[in-house]
Amino acid sequence: IEFANFKFIKEDVRKTHFPDNYFDAVVAVSTLEHIGLSGRYGMDEDPAGDKKAVDEMKRILKSNGIILLTVPFGKAKIIKPYHRIYDGVLIRQLVKGLEIEKDEYCMQDSRNDWYKCFKEEAERVEARSDRSALCLLKMVKK
């Protein structure tokens, strides 16, 4: 599929070809938690893969640029080969050097509909491979 003024590029988000300070915004929706976990998506094992990806996003982002990010949230753990679950401590480590402008948290009800919740409620969730809370972040590179 081709779109005017739009180009698909496939490469490793941990090390891209883009120059420093290139983008106004970077968006990673339901992506970061998989980076560096082998067994799915053809990914190699790299325990620091998610951190390397965020560092690369910061490198290619212009000053005052925005990163929009979503990750599974709850009691921190890795559910191999599926994804990582982040808690508040891991989020802060992951996005060090970025200013969190806004954070929101969501959970699913018994009908699997999403609703906003408090961070403390989301952080108590014992995630499974098919269910977790969600953290949504808007961050700025200063």
Task: Summarize the topology.
Elements: E1 23-29, H1 49-60, E2 61-73, E3 77-79, E4 83-85, H2 88-94, E5 98-108, E6 114-117, H3 119-123, E7 133-141
Would you give an account of this structure?
- It is built from 3 helices and 7 strands; from the N terminus they run E-H-E-E-E-H-E-E-H-E.
- The N and C termini lie far apart (36 Å).
- It is α+β, with helices and mostly antiparallel strands.
- The model has no long low-confidence stretch (mean pLDDT 94).
- The strands form 2 sheets. It has a 5-stranded mixed β-sheet.
Query: What proportion of the residues is helical, as a percent range?
Result: 10-25%
Gross morphology: globular
Q: Largest sheet, described in full?
A: 5 strands, mixed
Order of helices and strands, N to C? EHEEEHEEHE
In round numbers, the mean pLDDT is: 94
What Rg is obtained from the alpha carbons, in whole angstroms?
A: 16 Å
Distance between the termini: 36 Å
Which structural class fits the helix and strand makeup? Answer: alpha+beta
Going across the biggest sheet, name each strand in turn: 1-2-7-5-6
**Number of separate strands:** 7
Key words describing this protein structure:
alpha+beta, 142 residues, 35% strand
